[in-house]
Design goal:
Two copies of one chain form a homodimer. Chain A is an alpha/beta fold. Chain A folds into three domains: 56 residues, Orthogonal Bundle (434 Repressor (Amino-terminal Domain)), CATH 1.10.260; 105 residues, Rossmann fold (3-Layer(aba) Sandwich), CATH 3.40.50; 136 residues, Response regulator (Rossmann fold), CATH 3.40.50.2300. Chain A is 39% helix and 17% strand. In chain A, the strands form three sheets. In chain A, strands 4-3-5-6-7-13 form a six-stranded parallel sheet, sandwiched between helices. In chain A, strands 9-8-10-11-12-14 form a six-stranded mixed sheet, sandwiched between helices. In chain A, strands 1-2 form a two-stranded parallel ribbon. Chains A and B meet through helix 4, helix 5, strand 4, helix 6 and helix 11 of A and helix 4, helix 5, strand 4, helix 6 and helix 11 of B. Chain A binds a DNA duplex through helix 2, strand 2 and helix 4.
Chain lengths: 373, 373
DNA sequence: CTGAAAGCGCTTACAG
DNA sequence: CTGAAAGCGCTTACAG
């Protein structure tokens, strides 16, 4: 099949696709003019600034109308090849992660679309070689920015770190990459981190429980605070919340697992025996919603009424949290605020101040009150 | 910042990116040879087929080693501009849809990656103008294929249908688009549909419940079968399953809502009153997991033991189904099989027979037995 | 102020 | 059998 690129084909290609040159022919101007008008680089009258091209208002209007009527969009590949900044954000999601990241992905997509960007996704499997493949592929595709919903630090070798660095603006080829955002932790210097303020979330939960008259608060952690910074955050928030009321944590009501996730029933049972049976807790703050659900299951089997007997508060506000019976009170991850922070870093509004590397943004959590506490 | 494209820059650009021409210089061959070798179009010896280029085995090995060592990937924009087939699949997801589609998305991504493809995502909002924007954007980006996790039919105007048609292989510009797959229903002729066999899923659920000794089976539908083809499927499966045991549905144990979703507690309560209190049901097949959870909530409040008193089976196998207490028995959507069917249509293995337009593939469901039935 | 021309990085038909 | 050259659709520095 031969392409018809003869002069007879004056108003479009055989396959119906409209190119800039077709628009130019139809409007009776040169491609340069169409490019300038549609790219917003055309002005009219003497007040026109530098860098713009003088095009009559009538001509500009005609070109805009033509482009709209034909549904013209400049070919992304041609623009990319010419060096125009990409409008695709790569998003890497830990494959083993819960659906919380997909809920967050949806929030990011919504906002990215508003700012004219698309998301290209990939799943990571804790395998540095496969992660490197994704990064090389994203680089070859000219990805504008990278968002990583996964902590590759534990298995991040030098090769991988170098590949991540290519998405830093400073090292990027001619502004090809706009930035790199990690969640909670970055394996390299210079990348941004957007994190939810877990400590503040737990602090709010503590304050809420105390205001309800609960006095024997328990904390159930997935791992020892010393072994996991994310657990340390929860622990700090727990201490801070109690301190505000002149209280201190009771060690009998602080339990931690060995890092196994999701918890097996035996672990949840052990936690309940420790903080409720032995510790006398009237409220439990769990590491996350999955843990909270596991605890609720045990509490029900042991005849402990929730929330009358024991309140339970989770973290993440999974979609499942609202469906659970009883519906879970939880520390929400505030996906909308997260998405805004990420996009303000990766797609800053034009004309804003440049963003220094290595920003660490903390997003406030939102306590979502339902039935369990 | 000026690009250094001088001859002195013999082994790469200043920014570290490696181009095909750099590889050619390093290997001491012309770009044509490198392109042929890396593209698998190079052969050696007299047995070389047509369309291939003769390149010595040693030279080919040297080029492969060089490319691997430098982490070379051809620039996707340049390949796209040259007319090479794209390896990006666009995925449109209904924004109002439950997370089931994101779980499915993950399954599709896993398989697409194995076949060298990336996913670019977008969310639809039941707004034809915004959907059209996504389609034009995907077209401009040279998307290889489109997968639509959303039924745009109710508000699909002529403009939108024409835009969808551009992703059909027949109308596509020179093989740019490989295909178009909808879920459950296509608004245009020629597109493929991949669907889960809901009727078969319900039939299996009925057989399972009968084998357990349940005899008073109920069906709770979100909408009248006549108003919603997806509900009609469930109804057909229900009849078929009962017929296999020489039984017929009892109208007192078939309830349907008015299409409102998700159900409000009053609707779930009405359904329980109808099929359990009045109908005497000892098992309920719900339209989906969300409905099943709503029913379980009501049953618990009314002191009906599940599954001893009444079994409940959902559909979708949401992530939340496994977390629920009691864990939900459900008709799973078999995301792995769904993903395989979609990719066999959109990225058929090389050398296979061409796929006729308008395929309708039905994926078998999988009954997931847990605690509720 | 307008228009022709170069060039982004590839692939491939074509000339030597 | 090998290598130079054209061209994909844009944008932009440059010449008229």
């Amino acid at each position: 099949m031969a392409r018809s690129t003869t002069a007879a084909d004056g108003n479009g290609r055989a396959d119906g696709r409209v190119r800039l040159i077709d628009l130019a022919r139809l409007a009776g101007v040169t491609p340069s003019v169409v490019s300038a008008v549609l790219g917003g680089r055309a002005g009219d009258g003497p007040g026109t600034g530098s860098g713009t091209v003088r095009v009559g208002a009538a001509t500009a209007a005609r070109i805009h109308a033509l482009a709209a009527r034909r549904g013209y969009r400049p070919d992304a590949a041609a623009q990319a090849l010419k060096g125009c900044p990409s409008t695709v954000i790569g998003v890497l999601i830990g494959a083993e992660s819960t659906l919380a990241n997909y809920e967050r992905l949806a929030a990011v997509e919504r906002l990215a679309d508003e700012r004219g960007h698309r998301l290209m996704i990939g799943q990571l499997h804790d395998d540095p070689a496969r992660t490197a493949d994704y990064l090389r592929d994203f680089r070859a595709r000219g990805i504008a920015a990278l968002l990583c919903f996964h902590n590759p630090a534990p298995r991040c070798d030098a090769v991988l770190r170098n590949l991540f660095r290519e998405f830093l603006p400073a090292d990027a080829p001619l502004g090809h990459a706009h930035g790199l955002v990690f969640q909670t932790h970055s394996p390299i210097r210079g990348a941004h981190v957007v994190d939810v303020d877990r400590a503040e979330g737990v602090r709010q939960a503590v304050a809420h429980l105390l205001a309800q008259g609960r006095r024997r608060l328990a904390l159930v952690l997935n791992a020892p605070p010393a072994a996991d910074p994310l657990m340390a955050d929860r622990w700090q928030g727990f201490i801070a919340g109690l301190a505000e009321a002149g209280r201190k944590p009771n060690p009998r009501r602080v339990w931690h697992g060995d890092g196994t996730f999701p918890p097996v029933p035996e672990q949840a049972a052990a936690a309940v025996r420790a903080v409720v049976d032995a510790g006398g807790a009237d409220a439990i703050i769990a590491s996350n919603d999955i843990w909270a659900m596991a605890l609720l299951r045990i509490l029900r089997r042991r005849g402990r009424a929730v929330p009358d007997n024991v309140a339970v508060i989770g973290m993440d506000n999974l979609y499942a949290a609202a469906l659970f019976d009883p519906a879970l009170t939880t520390i929400g991850q505030n996906n909308a605020a997260f998405a805004r922070a990420v996009l303000d870093l990766l797609v800053p509004p034009a004309g804003g101040a440049p963003i220094p590397p290595g920003q660490h943004i903390t997003v406030p959590p939102e306590l979502v009150l339902r039935e369990t506490g």
